[in-house]
Amino acid sequence: MYNKQTWLDEIPDMTKPIYDASGKQKTDPQTGRPLFELVQVGTRITSSRLNTMEGGIEAAHTLVEQLAKELGGNFVVPIDGTMGLLCNAQGLKATWTTGIAYVSGRRYQVAAGEMPLNPTQGQYLYVDIDGVVKKTTSQTTAKKGLTIFYVATDTSGVISTTDHRVNISMEEILKKIKDINIEDAVTGGASGLMTGADAKFVRVDGETKTGSQEKANAVKDYVESRLDTSERSEVTLQPGLQVIQGKKNAPFNLSSIKGRTLINLLGRMGNFETLGTYTYSNGMTAVIDTTFSAGGTSSLRVVIPSNQSSGTVSIPNVKLLANKCYVLIGMIKNGNTDNGGQISFAGFADSALVTNTTKFNATAVKYKPSADTTVSISMGVNGVPITTQYANFDELRLYELTQTEYDALDTVTPEQAATMYPYVDSLQPVKNPYAIRYGENLVPPFYEWEYGKIGTGKAELLSPYELYQYGKDLSSYATNDVLIPVIPGITYTLSAEIDKNPTTITDALFFYWIGADGNRLPGEEPTTRKYKGTHVAPNDARQIQLYVDMDVTHTTENKTQIIKNPMLNIGSTALPFKPREDPMLALQTELYADPLTGTNADEVFEKDGQYYKLAKWRGLALDGSLVYRSIQNKTGYKIVGSKMKEAAPAFNKLFVCKYNADLLTKASTMTGPDNAYFLTADLTDFNVSIANVDSGWGDSYTNLSADEIKAYFLGWKMFNWDGATGGDHNGVSQFTGAAGSVKAWIKISEVGTAGASRTTVLPTTQAPNYTPYQLLYQLATPVVEPIMSEGQLTLIEGSNQIEVGTGVVVHEETKPVFSNLWSTYDINSINSSGLAANPLNYKAKKIRTVYKNNRPDAWSIIKDNLSYGYERAYFPAELFDSLSTYYVTYFMLDKTPIAPFVGSVAENEKTLLNDLNESVQQSVARVSETETSLNDVVRELLQQRNKRNIWGPIE
Questions:
Q1: What domain of life is recorded for the organism (predicted)?
Q2: CATH of the domain at 340
Q3: d(Cα 617, Cα 777) in Å, to the nearest integer?
Q4: pLDDT digits (tens, 9 = 90+) for 826-839
Q5: Less Cβ around it within 10 Å: N or C end of the chain?
Q6: Residue 426 burial (CB < 10 Å; 0-12/13-18/19+)?
Q7: pLDDT given at position 47
Q8: How far lies 332's CA from each of 263, 320, 338, 936, in Å?
Q9: Count of domains observed in the chain
Q10: What is the sign of the dihedral through the CA atoms of 595, 597, 599 and 603?
Q11: 161, 167, 173, 179: CA torsion to nearest 10
């Protein structure tokens, strides 16, 4: 087995030489360089080590070549069932297609080509040992390489041709197995087993030749089925959690992920993270409630006053178009109303009432107007005029559907509709898709659990899967817990080794069922805890909350417990302990499709170990990265534009969401504001009309500069900061350029706010808490783009719990910051007393891995209100390495549409061998690239050997 060398930088402190007893500076015995005290101990580069590396690379090449020779000698490798180097001869010219050839054990990627033929001659085309296609009249010469074609010519053209390509196959490998034959056997002699000098062996039970041959044939047939024919099973991994049965341990080969785009016509108003602009009936009120949420961190609590029995809180002025199909979906948790809550297209269509008080339930209503109309989207609560009653609403979304999708809603439940059309903010594609196969053991190591303690209670991690706890009573105990996803109706078994003192105390390893809203299901309380054994997940369960907790008895005696090797597996039998391993395939890309029809979808595919996207759409933010120009001044609005890098196929093949998430119209007439299109004369020229009331550009202000346009797209409104000329101090006015007026800017989010921040200096950075315009347009010509990926999804033999989702961020670089609150370095923290801010690019739902110099590092993860999102990571300051580079892979809190992973898994050994062969070829190619890069580095170092080098001479 190869003993991999881990190389580290060696960093000396040049101010601290190392001296020997005589006062002379010491030198390195291998390199001869002067020695200094080290800041970081590293690996010396020596000729011996480099030669060892060269020897290893040479040995790897020799081994691969020897294996190729033993496997098939000289041959052509079929790719996807097609054998390359196909030759064709016409006239006095021969051509051949591209292909992969193994010649004397070496692999060559042979490019397509052509060569002239000799007249009146028989000649062979062959791939020589240098990988070049040549021709010869000698069959012996051709056979030393790889013969691919023979052609005989007369003076003007071809007389005859023969294809001599040899492709690798398993036939020769299986030949001996296929030729198995049981010779006739005779019985006799004193023993009844042998007779004569050449007697045959015979079974004692007297089995006949026919019976033995039948069994041998059965074995042969089985072997042929496993080794002679490639077999794959097509597998589609659906969004969400599922259990897939695997026939054997095998990698999942991704064939395709197709894009999808959802546009929530309510923008971001339905996430209820902040209060919006609503209309109220019957004295209703609404507040943001952080106690309950279906998604994000809060919901909207709608309250009936005590003197009313019902009422609504509504989002007004939602425009619907004639004969278009719409669906309104939301999540409702009844508080204490007698009749529940509902959502509606006010005055046109209502959903069913939701009365459940224990969790959020999905509800949906559809509507198809016969004429263009403006409606209110209402959240209604029905009770009795006795006490103040309320219900909570969350994840409210409004989507336009096709007629087929609209009709299909009649056949699904509200929960199914909510899954088909999940909540998104504004315009969202399939963003950063991933598939995780959770380990055969679903329990993560203890260092990933949440930790807490009361009084003198304590917990100590003895190893990743061994935990010590001490507790005394309910005022002094330790607790560790973790959430694990489960699937309703699936059977799970919990097991562990538990050492208790005293032995009479109740096991302190237990769990509760958790619902979709993150809360315990009804009836889940201390008296109904689930302990070791087999349990079936209820219909409403989505997770279990697994605890190791010493508060299970109320006695005052000291209690200790060691939990070792906890195991949660699918099925009714406890399996032997295994550490949890969660192989994941994560792709960093955005996959779009037409939001209204779902057609022309972007698609992911794999080639030679690299993932690519066939991009048919381009999505981008209209922010400071673009160059803008003024196009036309209109009454009440202005038209501005920007050049795109790629052309659109038509002027209206685009979708644009405003900073407030409203969807802009698209018409080339540009007769009003909030419209966007591409010029038909130049389909790279994007135009958008902007209302003066939004931008602050008055009708008479025509000297609009490119940077002033950019400031608007960065979230700033221009206004007249001078009360004497019709201006104001809170940004409501427009700047007209009139004499005496003062041009100033205010954050768009603060317009109309007294005491808001203002500036007379043209802003060049994006305003805080501002979401730019979003542009999505179809490309006139699709393009293929490589995408970043992480990991390899594999299936195990038996039950595989797999999650397919979106929102994984792969290897985002971060710079941990020091916080004196707990003397730690933190990642994804927000400003607080004693805690430094270091937010990631997106709010984090879950931090998966922190990497130190691209290697996983053991950071602690905590979920609290000091996190940007749900979680942050921290590391003890005294152990932190400030010279390293840190990266994070995590899951975003924001939701985006989810698409299935379509692929296949190997069904038999030949397919596994083919996959392994392909993987080896790709690995050899990558090793070759690494070798080339290393040689370049060494060559550059050697070129510096005669220059002054503080490290000493380079050998």
A1: Bacteria
A2: 2.60.120.260
A3: 6
A4: 999 988 777 888 99
A5: N
A6: buried
A7: 60
A8: 21, 24, 14, 63
A9: 6
A10: positive
A11: -30
Q: Is 671 helix (H, G, I), strand (E, B) or coil?
A: coil
Do 636 and 740 lie in a common domain? yes
Q: Are both 490 and 412 inside the same structural domain? A: no
The reply to whether 715 and 853 lie within a common domain is no
Quickly count: other Cβ atoms within 10 Å of residue 543's Cβ: 19
What is the bridge-based pairing of β-strands 427-431 and 533-536? unpaired
Name the 3-class secondary structure at 104: coil
SS3 of 916, please? helix
CA distance 474 to 652: 66
User: Which residues of the chain fall below pLDDT 50?
Assistant: 1-3, 70, 169-204, 222, 225-228, 917, 920-924, 926, 946, 948-951, 953-955
Q: What angle do CA 176, 177, 178 make, to 5 degrees?
A: 90
- Tokens at 453, concatenated: 């303690």
* DSSP H or E stretch at residue 242: strand 240-246
Q: What pLDDT was estimated at residue 199?
A: 41
Phi then psi dihedrals of residue 625, to 5 deg: -80, -10
Domain boundary among 131, 163, 195: 163
Report the pLDDT value the prediction gives residue 220, as an integer from 0 to 100: 53
Structural domain harbouring 99: 75-163
DSSP labels for 557-612?
S-EEEEEEEEEEEESSSPPPP------EEEEE-EE---TTT--S--EEEEETTEEE
Rounded Cα gap, residues 672 and 652, in angstroms? 16
Structure tokens that stand for 572 in this block? 């009714």
Cβ 586 vs Cβ 434: under 8 Å: yes
Residue type, 631: I
* 632 shares a domain with 760: yes
d(CA 783, CA 619): 14
pLDDT at residue 196 in the model: 42
CATH number at 106 reads 2.60.520.10
- pTM over 0.85, yes/no: no
* 637, 765: one domain: yes
Tens of pLDDT, residues 647-658: 999 999 999 999
The β-bridge partners of 868 are: none
The length of the chain in residues reads: 955
Whether residue 24 sits in one domain with residue 110: no
